[in-house]
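Hi support team,

I've been running sequence recovery on a batch of backbones for a student project. Most finish fine, but this one hangs at about 90% for roughly twenty minutes before it completes. I'm not sure whether the input is malformed or the queue is just slow. I've pasted the structure tokens below so you can try to reproduce it. Let me know if you need the job ID as well.

Thanks,
M.K.
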């Protein structure tokens, strides 16, 4: 089905006789004001465990393991491109800043798809809280960008899922991290955020009460100055990365924050596109991770078209 096909989120269970799991896997794009329709979390623990198990098992194959620092977690898996000096997609896994690795929290479809299109791809491992702060974690990811790879260093694409999406949007709006790593933020041509949270961490308690807000408080604390400092929206006044693609599923508070971030970026003269796809809460949150890169999943076509516009494999 076309990526622009609308869905009626008020009738998910009855739509074509599909249940919420099948609807999330289908992932049609939600259009217009329908992105703001209220949805609720109705998942049970057995389904959560099944999704986590599927995510952990869906590890990409191939690539080369490379160290980018002296700490044990500081390494990345690198898939080179057949195209010389190809742009690189630097991927940051999620897991509320405290769990996951660069292989078991990534989803293999996106790696295979993007490498086949000619992009180089690197999935970054990094230290987890509480052994480091989130601020130190973001700096580690920034430092990984300096790894010696056969890529075009002036055409970097940052991509992340969940808390990894928070990390890459912060790197794309706050130039201090990349500057500390000896890199200009202008080398980051694009940022792709997959169902991110905490664009405005101060608002998370009201926007996403429950596990999302609880994880934010665990990772970032309660100090208002720190929460502002760790919020991409508060840094979006420029300089920023070249363009932002925000791909979300139906998690109400995070969609509100994504709209807010996209407006702040546009006000600063930065290109920003937001798309929302079927999939309620944790079901959709994991499905977009696993299915992005599958040609049958509508978000894949949206991503491909956007990349071709902003960071094509062959530089003009």
């Amino acid at each position: 089905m076309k990526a622009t096909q609308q869905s009626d989120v008020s009738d998910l269970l009855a739509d074509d006789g599909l249940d919420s799991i099948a609807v999330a896997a289908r992932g049609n794009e939600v259009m217009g004001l329908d992105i703001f329709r209220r949805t609720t979390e109705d998942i049970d623990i057995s389904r959560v465990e099944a999704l986590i198990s599927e995510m952990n098992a869906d590890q990409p194959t191939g690539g080369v393991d490379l160290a980018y620092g002296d700490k044990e977690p500081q390494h990345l898996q690198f898939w080179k491109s057949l195209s010389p000096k190809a742009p690189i997609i630097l991927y940051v896994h999620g897991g509320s800043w405290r769990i996951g690795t660069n292989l078991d929290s990534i989803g293999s479809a996106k790696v295979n798809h993007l490498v086949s299109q000619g992009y180089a791809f690197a999935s970054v491992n990094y230290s987890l809280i509480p052994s480091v702060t989130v601020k130190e974690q973001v700096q580690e990811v920034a430092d990984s960008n300096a790894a010696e790879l056969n890529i075009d260093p002036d055409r970097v694409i940052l991509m992340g899922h969940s808390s990894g999406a928070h990390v890459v949007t912060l790197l794309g709006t706050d130039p201090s991290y990349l500057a500390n790593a000896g890199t200009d933020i202008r080398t980051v041509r694009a940022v792709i955020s997959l169902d991110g949270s905490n664009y405005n961490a101060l608002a998370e308690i009201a926007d996403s009460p429950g596990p999302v807000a609880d994880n934010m408080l665990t990772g970032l604390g309660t100090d208002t100055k720190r929460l502002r400092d760790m919020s991409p929206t508060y840094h979006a006044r420029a300089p920023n990365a070249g363009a932002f693609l925000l791909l979300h599923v139906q998690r109400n508070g995070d969609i509100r924050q994504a709209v807010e971030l996209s407006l702040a970026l546009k006000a600063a003269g930065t290109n920003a596109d937001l798309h929302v796809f079927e999939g309620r809460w944790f079901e959709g949150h994991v499905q977009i991770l696993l299915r992005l890169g599958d040609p049958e999943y509508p978000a894949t076509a949206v991503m491909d078209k956007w990349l071709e516009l902003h960071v094509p494999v062959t530089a003009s």
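--
Follow-up from support: It reproduced on our side and the slowdown came from queue contention, not your input. The first helix runs from residue 20 to 26. No action needed from you.
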